[in-house]
Write a structure and sequence with these properties.
about 210 residues, mainly beta, five-stranded antiparallel sheet, two-stranded antiparallel sheet, 13 strands, about 5% helix, about 30% strand, elongated
Length: about 210
């Protein structure tokens, strides 16, 4: 929790500053991280294929993974402040109905029920506070398959295949720019729409000779 918007110490509301107190922009309410390392049961000294050429080929392989699950980042709603007549303060919409999370992606498929919000009347502030809702959750799974080949006590070769974002799951978010968030500005062309994503599967293969 905090009063700041971003990392520069700026306030959204200089009038009634207590209203700034809300979840910080980087807050992830729930986070789960799990890492696993598993040596496959093949090769010398293992349960299966413990001798011969087969042990040399299928032995020594290791699987590892790194899973990250996080709840969504806070959403900061804004609206036109031309009628507010309070320079330096941020205008927000009025909440007029319960918000439904629709899980839409892209223009024309809003993430939330946009009809739940309306402009504030005249010079009044909107009643939606800072960082009112949460955005899409975060999911990422990295994995690796590795093997160490020992030639002598002094020389060995490490092979490693790594997959970042192995499930190719996109991570959606609202676009931020010029101090506002495009999809969270009331009645903007992208109002309610998520138009940005990151992630995507990446593969890399590495070999390291140790001597």
């Amino acid at each position: 929790m905090g009063f700041q918007t971003g990392d520069d110490g700026g306030l959204a509301f200089y009038i009634n500053q207590r209203r700034n107190y809300a979840r910080n922009d980087f807050d992830r309410t729930q986070t789960f991280v799990q890492s696993i390392v598993y040596d496959l049961p093949f090769g010398k000294g293992k349960r299966f294929v413990s001798s011969g050429i087969g042990a040399a080929v299928v032995g020594g392989w290791r699987i590892s993974s790194f899973l990250t699950l996080m709840s969504g980042l806070p959403l900061y709603f804004s609206a036109s402040s031309t009628s507010l007549k309070a320079p330096g303060n941020t205008q927000t919409p009025n909440l007029i109905a319960p918000v439904k999370i629709l899980h839409g992606i892209g223009i024309g498929n809003p993430w939330f029920s946009t009809s739940s919000f309306a402009p504030a009347a005249g010079t009044a502030f909107g009643n939606v506070g800072r960082n009112y809702l949460s955005g899409p959750n975060f999911f990422n799974l990295d994995a690796a398959l590795s093997k160490s080949i020992r030639f002598t006590e002094r020389y060995n070769l490490d092979l490693r295949l790594e997959a970042f974002g192995v499930t190719n799951t996109p991570q959606f978010f609202f676009t931020t720019g010029n101090g506002t968030v495009a999809g969270l500005t009331l009645n903007s062309s992208s109002w309610g729409a998520i138009t940005s994503a990151s992630g995507g599967r990446q593969l890399q293969l590495g070999a390291k000779f140790n001597f």
